Amino acid sequence: MKKTFIIFTAFVLFCFNVFLIGGCTSKKEEERKTVSEATQDEKAKQLPVSGGAFSKAIGPATVVVDVDGATLTQGQIDDDIKKNISRFGGKIPADRLEKFKDSMRKQLINQFVVRTLLSNEVNRLKIPASDKEVSAAIQQLKSSLPQGITIENILKKGNISEKNFREEIRLGIQTKKLVLSSMKGKTKPTDKEITAFYQKNKEMFKAPESVHARHILIATSAKDDDKLKAEKKTKAEEIRKSLMEGADFAAMAKKFSDCPSKVNGGDLGTFYKGQMEKPFENAAFSQEINTIGPVVETPYGYHIIEVLEHHQPTIVSLDQKIKERIALFLQQQKQEEAFQNLVKNLKAKAKIALYVP
Predict the structure, then answer these.
(1) DSSP helix/strand/coil, 298
(2) Which of 91, 163, 176, 93 lies closest to 129, judged by CA?
(3) DSSP string covering 91-108, please?
(4) How far apart are the first and last CA of the chain?
(5) Most distant CA pair in the chain: distance in Å?
(6) Which long-range contacts (CB under 8 A, 24 or more apart) does 197-204 make?
């Protein structure tokens, strides 16, 4: 078995944003049986797990599953489980280790079955994926990774060669073409479907309560003694008094504030509950609009706040931007459903034998 199971999951998610779901059946000791999709789904929960008596009953060369002649052995499964455990650096609690092994074993069998079926089908239909397409997909994947994480590091950590990685990406592209082909052009949701989704899930489009505010900060430090803190608070009170008497807020912020927002006249933009320190949040969400509130203390120092706008929770209207987001979600949902149906049909036609003691 190639060292590609984790990458296989990654590229399928990359292409479809879906999870692989497959089925396996239980067997009596040394019994062989070619199983149907319905039987697999019905008996999936009965799948025996690795570890204990089971691991002693069979050896590394024992075939665990056969998919149209392609086999996966217990030794290959054990190797992959061992490598996955080592990646956690001993951080898996001892009382959860066997459960982790069981789950990983089922996942590896699942992935082997699905990958084999997809690989056989794209080869049978001679679905192409050029080197240029592979390189473009890898570049897109690179751009989606979090800062500080590289594909090279991932491959090194997973002990996966660049050649195998490119093979998996190629299969991902071929599989995506296969799925889209099975959809017969019905990939884009209709306006009716988009509107129906919006009407049914309005709570998903609820904008929370928010305020638009600006402030002036007189910063304090943990090193400040009581005298210095009192002086800074007095300074904040004096600035507030000037503002109450008509001084320009933006000008005062640029001159006195210790917050980077001073360059914008103290403007913090719009924020929601939970984004600011609690004393600041409580003041901002309770103040009247266009009034200068009392001086508020937070771990950062003393704040003079002015609320410019206060928006109550509202349902976002179905504008073009929201329509595009819903369309993308529904399109991915359609592709996921098509992918699952494709795998189901391939399983129904394949000869899948699962050997379990």
Answers:
(1) strand
(2) 176
(3) -S-HHHHHHHHHHHHHHH
(4) 21
(5) 91
(6) 197/326, 197/329, 197/330, 198/318, 198/322, 198/326, 202/315
Bridge partners of residue 90, in order along the sequence: none
pLDDT in tens, 13-66: 444 333 232 233 333 333 333 333 333 333 333 333 334 334 446 788 999 999
User: How long a stretch of residues is the chain?
Assistant: 357
The residue written with tokens 């400040």 in the block is 224
What helix, strand, coil percent values describe the chain, rounded to 5?
A: 55, 15, 30
* DSSP code per residue over 123-177: HHTT----HHHHHHHHHHHHHHSPTT--HHHHHHHTT--HHHHHHHHHHHHHHHH
> What one-character DSSP code corresponds to residue 191?
H
User: CA 212 to CA 307: how far, in whole Å?
Assistant: 6
The CATH code belonging to domain 5-187+335-354 is 1.10.4030
Using an 8 Å Cβ cutoff, are 15 and 138 in contact? no
Token pair for 323: 């329509």
CA–CA separation, 246 and 236 (whole Å): 16
| Residue among 210, 193, 187 nearest 318 (CA) | 193
pLDDT tens digit sequence for 310-352: 999 999 899 999 999 999 999 999 999 999 999 999 999 999 9
User: Which sequence spans correspond to the domains of the chain?
Assistant: 5-187+335-354, 209-312
Between the alpha carbon of residue 266 and those of residues 287, 289, 308, the distances in Å are: 17, 16, 12
Predicted structure pTM score: 0.63
Please state, in angstroms and rounded to a whole number, the distance separating the CA atoms of residues 88 and 140.
27
**What CATH number does the domain located at 209-312 have?**
3.10.50.40
5-187+335-354 and 209-312 in the same fold: no
